[in-house]
Write a structure and sequence with these properties.
Layout (H helix, E strand, L loop, with lengths): L1 E3 L5 E6 L13 H20 L2 E7 L3 E2 L8 E11 L3 E11 L6 E14 L10 E3 L3 H14 L4
Parallel strand pairs: 1-8
Antiparallel strand pairs: 2-5, 3-7, 4-7, 5-6, 6-7
């Protein structure tokens, strides 16, 4: 069984509310990381066809804040897979909900492990990279994972 990279692309949004904010009226970093982990897991599960649990989250680089009233736009896709592990690139943007204007805000690489109902690891499919867009996404992720972006 194989799965195409483009089939793993997930995009989700969260409206930043006051209960998500810190003292500066911007999204608390912990909330942003939670949203990133959730969307990353959705991408990993779509790829694996199994429940996936977080094994490792690389450093999260926060470039700019997301203000209360803005939308946190999170994008995730699988860019590599092992026997039971799935590597997911997760990017977050600040999005103006009325104009759609976006700015990058946070970035990370997360490893998930596929497990069955007994919480035993299970094999994941082979990742197929079939389009130019998929190849660009994969290359960007691999370069960034290794400190190249």
């Amino acid at each position: 069984m194989t799965t195409r990279l483009t089939e793993t692309y997930i995009e989700n949004r969260a409206m930043v509310q006051p209960n998500h904010a810190n003292m500066l009226d911007t999204a608390h970093g912990g909330n942003v990381m939670k949203w990133m982990d959730e969307v990353g897991a959705m991408s990993a599960m779509r790829f694996a066809g199994e429940t996936c649990v977080t094994a490792r989250m690389s450093q999260v680089d926060f470039e700019r804040p997301i203000h209360v009233g803005d939308t946190a736009l999170i994008e995730a896709y699988v860019y590599a897979a092992g026997t039971s592990s799935v590597r997911v690139r997760v990017k977050t943007y600040r999005e103006n909900p009325t104009t759609g204007e976006t700015e990058p805000t946070a970035d990370s690489y997360i490893v998930y492990v596929a497990v069955d109902e007994d919480r035993n690891t299970v094999e994941v499919p082979e990742l197929r990279v079939e389009t130019d867009r998929a190849q660009r996404l994969r290359e960007e992720a691999l370069a960034g994972e290794n400190g190249g972006d």
